[in-house]
Write a structure and sequence with these properties.
The chain has 273 residues and is mainly beta. The protein has 2 domains: 26-120, Immunoglobulin-like (Sandwich), CATH 2.60.40; 128-272, Galactose-binding domain-like (Jelly Rolls, Sandwich), CATH 2.60.120. The protein is 10% helix and 50% strand. It is elongated and about 70 Å long.
């Protein structure tokens, strides 16, 4: 009987020790990321951190973020910059044209907090179409559909374009020059745009295919009182026109008569692929 009780006490001790060890192992460390910086003079709207530990996705965190990690020891941490695809909060992706931030051998110790300040850049092997109104000549122009022209405003801090619709002027529309080398095989193609406007406006593509110009409307962008940035995914359209000879990106504002004057400001128009 005594031997039997000793066995029970021994098993209970081992079990409690095991449970205690398991509880200790569940104490997390924490990683804190306030923001992700783009390391050049370009504007950005990075909203999320995609965090990988030893190349396994740990999670996607809206910035600023602080999150627990159960991994311990020296680990490789990779962070990718996340955006809102087409400005939609429910459609978040990592931006394929920004580099990853890599931190080797981060020592994860239970109970400790680690602050990381990621810096990313544009990848080297990408192609830019860029209109920032800073150079000589312009890569965009109004189309035949437009009732008004735009003007370049030269502030102390930046140059940008402005257009307005009032009275009987119904349409403002600009388009880029023809772009011939946009990939059509499903590779990512994005429009980046800085803007503010007091009414919604539209972005789309004019597709040149077999001697015909096709108008592909892509996204209506809502009004913003202050400067904002949006990443517009052009890939579903460009990949749908394998025989296209060229593309033009356009921006179109139509008259909203509930407002006395419709205004749009835009800058840093980039097409990236």
């Amino acid at each position: 009987m005594l031997i039997y009780l000793k066995k029970i006490y021994f098993i209970s001790f081992v079990f409690l020790t095991f449970i205690s060890c398991k509880k200790e192992n569940l104490t997390p460390s924490y990683i804190k990321i306030n923001d992700i910086e783009l390391d050049n003079s370009s504007t950005e709207k990075i909203t999320d951190a995609w965090v990988y530990i030893e190349n396994q996705l740990q999670g996607v965190y809206e910035l600023p973020a602080k999150f627990p990690v159960l991994e311990t020891g020296a680990k490789e941490i990779r962070i990718r910059a996340g955006i809102k695809n087409n400005g939609i909060s429910s459609s978040r992706i990592f931006y394929p044209f920004y580099s990853s931030f890599l931190k080797n051998d981060l020592e994860l110790i239970p109970g400790e907090e680690h602050s990381i300040n990621p810096v990313v850049n544009y990848l080297d092997n990408i192609t830019f179409f860029n209109e920032d109104f800073e150079g000589v000549g312009l890569e965009i122009d109004t189309t035949v559909n437009s009732n008004v022209d735009f003007e370049i405003i030269n502030d102390i801090s930046q140059k940008y374009a402005f257009a307005s619709l009032k009275d009987s002027n119904n349409i403002f529309e600009i388009a880029t020059i023809e772009i011939f080398d946009i990939p059509k095989d499903g590779s990512p193609v994005f429009l980046e745009l800085d803007y503010k406007a007091n009414t919604e406006f539209k972005t789309g593509l004019y597709v040149q295919e077999s001697g015909t110009v096709i108008d592909e409307s892509i996204l209506w962008i809502r009004e913003k009182e202050t400067w904002s940035k949006i990443y517009v995914n052009l890939t579903p359209v460009t990949s749908n026109y394998f025989d296209a000879s060229s593309f033009k990106v356009y921006i179109k504002m139509e008259r909203n008569f509930s407002i006395s004057e419709n205004k749009i400001y835009f800058d840093n128009l980039k097409i990236i692929y």
